Amino acid sequence: MDIQEKVIILDFGSQYTQLIARRTRESGVYSEIHPCTITPEELKALQPSAIILSGGPASVSSPDSPGIDPSIFEWGLPILGICYGMQLMAHVLGGKVAPSLDREYGRSDLHFEGHCPLWETLSDAGKLTVWMSHGDHVLAVPPGFSVMAKTQNIEIAAMADVGRKMYALQFHPEVAHTEQGDEILRNFLFHVVGLKSVWTMSSFVDSMLQALPEQIGDDKVVCGLSGGIDSTVVAVLLNKAIGKNLHCIFVDNGLLRAGEGDEVIGYLRQHFDLNLHYIKAQDKFLSRLEGLEDPEQKRKIIGYTFIEVFEEEAKKIPGVKYLAQGTLYPDVIESISFKGPSAVIKSHHNVGGLPEKMDLALVEPLRELFKDEVRKVAQELGLPDFIVWRHPFPGPGLAIRVIGEITDERLEILRQADKIVQHELMASNWYYKVWQGFAVLLPLKTVGVMGDERTYEHVIALRIVDSIDAMTADWSRIPTEILGRMSSRIINEVKGVNRVVYDISSKPPSTIEWE
Ligand code: XMP
């Protein structure tokens, strides 16, 4: 997409870098994250309206810390440095940075000093509660800069060279714990840089409907539909853009939950004139998974079987040139990001390798969007709530929720239990309040008693979490009556289950899925 005004965020490895991008976009300003290792030429070619330097775990005083080309500060662009970004500005521009022995982590009271355009519209002028997470701090500002705020612990918690439009904050305005942090960022974007709030999802849809036909021409596109929101939005957008040249393939791998996929596919069939190829491949998937317990092995087999089935079907469509995928911006960032200490924990790749194997070019209309933006696009496209707010469902499906061996019997137990969880979440209106809720079948049996009989049966775990992006999550405080109803219905209605437990772990250190 050709976007006129954009903010470039240089990533120095902070866990909050994505949040900076989300906050600027929520304010209606398009932003992109690039690694701090970008060259000045590459950066210039992006034509930024402003640059934000993110935080990061390094210390500017250590020899292998990530740096920045000093010439960037001479371009006349407005620059905002956050945390490590501030220390780097001080270090490069002639100030002094002091290493601290102790990290300051958590809330801090910020007191304003002097007149700063970033504080201009804040309601409680004078002081703010802000979120700090740093080791080093600035001891002396560079020439031309003034101190703009202090805290009880540090004398220079914000600095600015107003004339050169350079600002730096030791705290994190992008995190929710910083009071009026959004407003501070907006003051930078609108008052300092002078940007306009034009990045909306309706403008995104308009520009995509223009760009996609130009990119694709009269060629054919094949698209894998999973029933989830990302692939559904890709399909509907392409359907509007290129009509019958889009071919959608839905693969039933036998690992779907009750109604998963079918509801969405049914809706799309009814409301859109899609070329839909519905492939029943349950036997192929389930026979290959027989006897396997290792989750990574399950994921791999499901991944390559999907590619095989998909490729076989796609080959039947003559003249396909493109593969459409629902890649989102976090996947793009993950692949380019500056690797700090955060490591990838689990492999989530579902269809990796497909484009190379089939020699297809990629169409990824959502690759600039965050999940919340995709939901807004879905609303713009007129999709109903049950699609827009559908809980995420993993590509490997129930294979990663039936812990241990996958058998028809165990899949059926999980499907029935999960159906009750979904039903009770919907009936109590909690479905739309939580990020994701589902049942997990554990690989053990425990003792119970039914009538006068001792039973020895399966355990179902309920996993219901609140999250904004699945990167962190907390267990949902679902009213105990609802949990109780889920439990008694599952034990009474699902044959083979005599115990239900509720998972009260947060991510991190746990994950959302059980494996
Ligand atoms: P975790 O378990 O890593 O999950 O906390 C985060 C989010 O990702 C989903 N998930 C997957 N999605 N393929 C997918 O498409 C996968 O292999 C996979 N594993 C986890 C999970 O449902 C949650 O929303």
TrEMBL record:
Pathway, per record: Purine metabolism; GMP biosynthesis; GMP from XMP (L-Gln route): step 1/1
This enzyme's EC code(s): 6.3.5.2
GO MF term set: ATP binding; GMP synthase activity
Pfam families assigned to the protein according to its UniProt record, in alphabetical order: GATase, GMP_synt_C, NAD_synthase
Keywords: ATP-binding, Glutamine amidotransferase, GMP biosynthesis, Ligase, Nucleotide-binding, Purine biosynthesis
Residues engaged in binding ATP: S226, G227, G228, I229, D230, S231, T232
Active-site feature positions: C83 (nucleophile), H172, E174
One GO cellular component term noted in the UniProt record for this chain: cytosol
Record has ATP-binding as a keyword: yes
Reactions that this protein is recorded to catalyse: XMP + L-glutamine + ATP + H2O = GMP + L-glutamate + AMP + diphosphate + 2 H(+)
InterPro entries linked to this entry: Class_I_gatase-like, GATASE, GMP_synth_C, GMP_synth_GATase, GMP_synthase, GMPS_ATP_PPase_dom, NAD/GMP_synthase, Rossmann-like_a/b/a_fold
Domain GMPS ATP-PPase: from-to ranges: 199-390
Function: Catalyzes the synthesis of GMP from XMP.
UniProt-listed PANTHER family: GMP SYNTHASE [GLUTAMINE-HYDROLYZING], GMP SYNTHASE-RELATED
Subunit organization: Homodimer.
Protein name as catalogued: GMP synthase [glutamine-hydrolyzing]
Species annotation: Desulfomicrobium baculatum (strain DSM 4028 / VKM B-1378 / X) (Desulfovibrio baculatus)
Name of the gene encoding the protein in the UniProt record: guaA
